[in-house]
Specification:
single chain, alpha+beta, 6-stranded mixed sheet, 3 helices
């Protein structure tokens, strides 16, 4: 008898396998933040990346992650909400952290943090700054863009 072909993993099951290395509490928080962002951007594509130190989902109007307006990441230290054009966003409460040229992040302790008026205003400002609007109709899809098993760890900068 011929061997049965291996069943291909769905994107959702691949994402879940990426998350297994994190604490169950972090997994649950990441899932609830993802659901909240998905609710806010139902037409966005979710581009998932598995890095050695994090799992990232970029919510993008296209199939390119770098065009994502909002990105969530889970790391050992916790869950973060990244906003495109972060350095240019109005942030009177100084919630944005990081020093990236394109993005800044807000630490997220609970999904309800996204509904806080100051955080919601930052998300709205990121949407306003975006060159590409989210599609008006349709439903976004989860796209796996990387597999951790194929990735080499990042090199540390030379001193």
């Amino acid at each position: 008898m011929p061997a049965k072909p291996a069943t291909a993993q769905t994107p959702e099951s691949q994402l879940q396998s990426f998350l297994e290395r994190f604490d169950p509490k972090q997994q649950k928080l990441f899932g609830s933040v993802r659901a909240a962002v998905r609710k806010r951007f139902p037409t966005a594509n979710e581009l998932a990346y598995d890095y050695p130190d994090s799992v990232v989902i970029s919510f993008s109007p296209t199939d390119r992650g770098f065009e994502g307006i909002v990105t969530i990441a889970v790391r050992e230290e916790g869950v973060r909400l990244y906003l495109l054009h972060g350095p240019q966003l109005p942030d009177p409460k100084k919630l944005l952290q990081g020093s990236g040229k394109q993005v800044r992040f807000v630490p997220v302790e609970a999904a309800t943090r996204l509904a806080h008026p100051d955080v919601a205003a930052l998300i709205d400002a990121a949407v306003d700054q975006s060159k590409l609007p989210m599609p008006a109709k349709g439903k976004g899809t989860l796209i796996i863009r990387s597999d951790g098993a194929k990735k080499r760890p990042r090199k540390k900068p030379a001193k």
